[in-house]
Write a structure and sequence with these properties.
The structure is a single chain. The protein has helices at about 1-5, 10-20, 30-45, 115-130, 150-155, 230-245, 275-290, 315-325, 370-385, 405-420, 435-440, 465-480; strands at about 45-50, 55-60, 70-75, 100, 105-110, 140-145, 165-170, 175-180, 185-190, 195, 200-210, 245-255, 265-270, 300-305, 310-315, 330-335, 345-355, 360-365, 390-395, 425-430, 445-450, 455, 465. By secondary structure, it is α+β, with helices and mostly antiparallel strands. Strand 4 (about 100) and strand 5 (about 105-110) form a beta hairpin. The longest helix has 18 residues, at about 275-290.
Length: about 475
């Protein structure tokens, strides 16, 4: 199936993407893709460096006639989000992504595609390999672990790069040029609880929420999508309030940067309430499906009788858990007052695990304003601490402050308008780009971000537009030709 993708235009780009997608590259397990990229640079005879955290830097001299242009850094991240449909059998640690063409889209079979940020990586690889593309001196920067902590960007030391301009190729709408982004912090709440014997006269049920769209917890947070953890909590809360439902296990969501698509809970109910419980639950399910009829057409909520579990949560902790998750904010917290339609601050209740006497609730809080980020993080902390959780803030990274007077922004907007007959949208995004972090050690670097159209990132519905990739490739080539002269 990758051959079908390799035949697409521009072939330089799609062939490098197919090469990359043959290499397993989950976040925090990038050893194989690092080795792949090191070998790629060395085979080209280019200076190839791996820094102490695993970022790869490949340096290519300017093409003839371009030596007097400013040195540029072209940057993308090597890792990808690993999500798959529940019924898809796939091992991300050992298998390459299985791609296919669907009209104007390249998709993967039941998994994330890795276009985020594989198309950016492939772009840089194609330019490094080319012999006929005009370009200034290039420092190609391939960072690791962007998706689960940005530790690659955080670990990049000053002095390794000399470029004056950074082109980050990690945005997902081809008519947008990004000049700012949100920062983030992981908010994690944990506590233990006592398990109790299952009372006599109980029946077991498994409640499943699935079929949600999921998506990027930054870029898609304002789209009114369902959060499986919130929906599950609503069902459990009602069952507890009205019928004394008790929880044995909850397994909801997966990665912090993905809106949770699925949640499964094992519960018990007193046999005397069996019929009334099922009837009441069905009414709530109907209400929830009606609420999400526009944004979540494939939502499935199932309540099925199952074997009795051996243990359940004690009711005191259970009540605190359900009320805390109900109180905890999920979704958009504040819109920007300075940029139209920009989400300033949000939270994603990404992962809820209840099992064997331990509770873990994992959130990703984002904001383009540092004080607002911690305002929301402290609101979450308060909700969880009130029911006895230990709450930690980890992995905090800064946002990227927009610079509307950026010289490279003038270059890109001029080229875009000339090629397309319309102005691009100059925006800041609610995703976490690495520019803000990289700017900490390279404060004088002029930074910009752009990319081809990618939909459904961080979900198995991820897809990359073929026509957009062609538009984007043409844009990249002209940008390289028009990098400003050295001062």
């Amino acid at each position: 199936m990758s051959q079908e993708v390799r035949n697409l235009e521009p072939k330089q780009l799609w062939n490098k993407f197919a090469d990359l997608n043959a290499v397993p590259r989950p976040s925090k397990k990038e050893e194989r893709v690092i080795a792949f990229m090191m070998e790629f640079g060395q085979k080209l005879g280019l200076e190839t460096i791996k820094d102490e955290v695993g970022n790869v830097i490949i340096k290519k001299p300017a093409s003839p006639g371009m030596e007097n242009r400013k040195t540029i850094v072209m940057q993308s991240h090597l890792d990808m989000v690993h999500q798959k449909n529940n019924d898809t059998v796939f091992d991300f640690d050992t298998q390459g992504i299985e791609m296919y063409v669907d009209g104007d889209w390249v998709r993967a079979k039941g998994t994330t595609l890795g276009a985020d940020n594989g198309l950016g990586v492939a772009t840089i690889m194609a330019i490094l390999e080319s012999k006929d593309i005009k370009h200034p001196a290039i420092e190609a920067l391939f960072t690791i672990d962007e998706e689960t902590g940005m530790t690659g960007a955080m670990g990049l030391k000053g002095g390794l790069l000399n470029g004056e301009i950074l082109l980050n190729l990690d945005t997902e709408e081809d008519d947008e040029i990004d000049i700012g982004c949100a920062g983030g912090v992981d908010v994690t709440a944990v506590r233990s609880y006592n398990e109790e014997e299952v009372p006599e006269g109980s029946v077991g049920y498994t409640i499943t929420v699935k079929g949600l769209n999921g998506g990027h917890s930054g870029m898609d947070i304002d789209k009114g999508l369902g959060n499986a953890n919130k929906i599950m909590n609503r069902l459990l809360f009602d069952g507890f309030e009205n019928f004394g439902l008790q929880i044995a296990e909850i397994n909801g969501g997966s990665l912090r940067n993905a809106i949770p698509r699925e949640s499964v809970a094992k519960v018990i109910i007193a046999e005397m309430y069996d019929e009334a419980f099922v009837f009441d639950m069905q009414e709530i399910i109907n209400d929830i499906k009606f609420e999400y009829k526009t944004t979540e057409k494939n939502l499935i909520i199932e309540i099925v009788k199952s074997e009795l579990p051996s243990k359940v949560m004690d009711l005191g902790v259970q009540e605190g858990l359900l009320r805390a998750i109900y109180a905890a904010h999920n979704g958009v917290y504040r819109m920007s007052a300075d940029m139209e339609n920009l989400v300033e601050t949000s939270n994603n209740i990404a992962r809820v695990i209840v099992k064997d006497g331990e509770i873990s609730i994992q959130n990703l809080t984002r904001s383009s304003v540092e004080s607002s980020k911690f305002d929301l993080a402290n609101a979450l902390r308060s909700a969880f601490e009130l029911f006895g959780c230990e709450v930690t803030f980890t992995g905090s990274y800064p946002g990227w402050t927009p610079n509307v007077e950026s010289p490279i922004l003038d270059v890109l907007t001029s080229i875009y308008e000339k090629q397309n007959g319309s102005k691009p949208h100059v925006v800041a995004c609610h995703a976490g780009l690495e520019c803000g972090i990289l700017g900490t050690n390279y404060p004088d670097m002029d930074m910009i971000s752009f990319g081809p159209t990618i939909k459904g990132a961080h979900s198995p519905d991820e897809r990359a537009s073929i026509s957009s990739a062609q538009k984007y490739w043409k844009f990249v080539l002209e940008i390289l030709e028009n990098i400003p002269m050295k001062n």
